[in-house]
C-alpha cells in the first residue's frame, strides 16, 4: 500500500503523511504512517483493492483447512467475507488499523475471527505449522523485507498448506513493463508506485511453481497462490 498511497496528500495539516518509501519503511515508520492512514484507508483504498481482496478470500474459502492467518489485516476489510468455517487470526503492526478491524468485527458479529493481534508479520510469535493457510493482501510491497515475510509464512503454515498474496507487481517486460517503469517515475502524481517486482518476494524456485491469476481492475493486481512444500 505504500506504493498506492505514495505521496498522497490532501493538503491539510491533519491529512495523512505520505508513507515513507519501501526501503525506509521499518516497523516504526509503518506504525506512524498507518496511524494517520487508518482514518481514511477504507475510503481511499477500499474501492480499487476490493476485487483483489474478494478474489483472495474466495480462494482461501475454497482451500482445505480451517486455520487462517491474515497478515497485515489492516482495518479488516476482508474479515466479513470469510466462510464461517474458517477461523481467522489477523495480525498487523499498526494498532490504529487494528482498532478499526476490531470495531468491524464487533459491529458485524464475525465470531469466526479468533484474534486480532499487534505483531510483525516478518517475525511472528506463532509456533511452526500453526496454520493451514496464510494470506497477505496488499502487504508484500509494504514490509521492508518481502523474502523474510515469505520465509516466516512458510514456517507458520503447515506443510501442504497454502500461502497467498494479492498485490500489484511489476509486469515482467513487454509493453506493460515499460509503461510501469515509466509510470514509476511519475508515482508522485499517480499516487502509487507501480514497480514492486515479484522477484523481490518470490525466489526462482517459487516463481516457477506459483499459481498466478490476474485480478481486476484491468489485471492490475495479481493473486499468487503457493503450496507450502514439506521441504520448504
Ligand atoms: C495496504 S494495507 C493492507 C490492509 C489489508 N490487508 C487490506 O487488504 O486492506 C497494509 C497493512 O500492512 C500492515 N503492515 C505493514 N508492515 C507490516 C508488518 N511487517 N507486519 C504486519 N503488518 C504490517 C500495515 O500496518 C497495514 O495495515
TrEMBL record:
Residues 1-10 have a biased composition (Polar residues). Keywords: Methyltransferase, Transferase. The keyword 4Fe-4S does not apply. GO terms for molecular function: S-adenosylmethionine-dependent methyltransferase activity. Residues 1-22 are annotated as: Disordered. Pfam families: Methyltransf_11 (PF08241). GO terms for biological process: methylation. CDD domains: AdoMet_MTases (cd02440). Residues 69-165 form the Methyltransferase type domain. InterPro entries: Methyltransf_11, Methyltransf_Superfamily, SAM-dependent_MTases_sf. It comes from the Bacteria. PANTHER family: METHYLTRANSFERASE, METHYLTRANSFERASE DOMAIN-CONTAINING PROTEIN. This is Methyltransferase domain-containing protein.
